[in-house]
Amino acid sequence: MSTNMSSRSASTKDVLQDHSQAKVKLYTGYLSAYLKILGNTPYMDTIHLFDILCGEGRYKDGEEGSALQGLRTIIEYYASTPLTKLKLSVRLNDFGQSTVEKGYKKIERVESFASKLVIPKSKIQLTCSDLEYSVILEEVGRKLNTLRGNEKSIVFIDPWGYKSIKPQKLKELFACDRCEILLFLPTTHMYRFANKATASGLEEKVPSGSEPLKRLLEELFDNDVPRFQVFDEFESAILKRLTGKMGAKYSSSFALETAKRNKYSLFFFTPHIKGLDVFNQVRWKLDTASGRGYFYRKNPNQLALLLNCPEVAHIQQVRDLIRSGHVNNRQVYEFGVVNGYLTKATNAALNHLKGAGEVVVEASDGKSIPTKTANYLQHNSDRDVLFKYVDNGAIKH
């Protein structure tokens, strides 16, 4: 395959597989929550949505991909909120010929299916195109650089592979500070070949076909790529390095496992803590056990084995945070969100510590002392309270 990325392969053209269904649910779930929040933001005028490798719209088995399900999510938002003033500019793009329906371009199939949806044209501006990845990326970048204070954007990148992924290009998109990016990558495949692709010794030879991965990893790790022992270490390192290279303030990931135990990762980057909070909410809705990902189970009733209970682990995290020094409600809120927890879990951890006499809360804004379970964990809370650790009956200073 050339360096022009295609969003689907022949092996996945017929069926929207379970892990891909979970990916689309995460994408549309985030989009739905995102629209509801920004629709209630008085100054917000327009959202720009770019699905730049959107596929063919519908698989051979009739299941819909991100392009159509994304449109349905938007239509549902307007149906439930008819008085909203929020407008959407939607750009659906993919390059190449259909592998499902011969004689048609991928984007022609998307346009055909989209034309059958009842789209409120006064609210939604839909544009379809069949530009190559590098071309659409440049066009999106130019558009993002023109966004005003009352506009925001989501860029969804779902490539087949990773050959054309360049961190510098992602950084250029993110630089507008009004953009959130969701990036889907085949991380198990990347992990399997990472050490081989970056072979440096004379006795080691870089396998044929690994050069694109080698270039990507060398750019991410500044030509000093470490050896990776386990997959989780690799995925975590990729997220951390992408976050740094892009200049993203907040980021997260969600694992998607296939029946063959291969894992993909949906990486998320946002300039705002509230965006990460919403992403966490969708993650935990899809994975109620740990919020980490979709994991394949041959038996749908099979329970996941959690070696470390997330609730217990979070109590210890919050304990260590407050033990290290006094922290206010906004700091605790952000701490919980950055560590991937729902705010209600952080509230529960705080209330457990308060109930055990390990933590006390004080008002530092001159207002009344908070009630027993009030912690005011919000990014824009109108209260300012302080949490202090109690050590052997004495407040730690």
Which key terms come to mind for this protein?
disordered N terminus; 12 strands; four-stranded antiparallel β-sheet; alpha/beta; Arc Repressor Mutant, subunit A; Rossmann fold; 397 residues; 2 domains
Q: Give the N-to-C terminal Cα separation.
A: 62 Å
Strand order, biggest sheet? 3-2-1-4-5-7-6-8
Strand content: 15-25%
- CATH topology label of the largest domain: Rossmann fold
CATH level-two architecture of the largest domain:
3-Layer(aba) Sandwich
CATH class of the largest domain: Alpha Beta
| Sheet/helix structural class | alpha/beta
The number of E-state strands comes to 12
For the largest beta-sheet, the strand count, sense and barrel status come to: 8 strands, mixed
Give the radius of gyration: 23 Å
- Tell me the helix content: 25-40%
The structural domain count equals 2
Unreliable residue runs: 1-10, 302-307
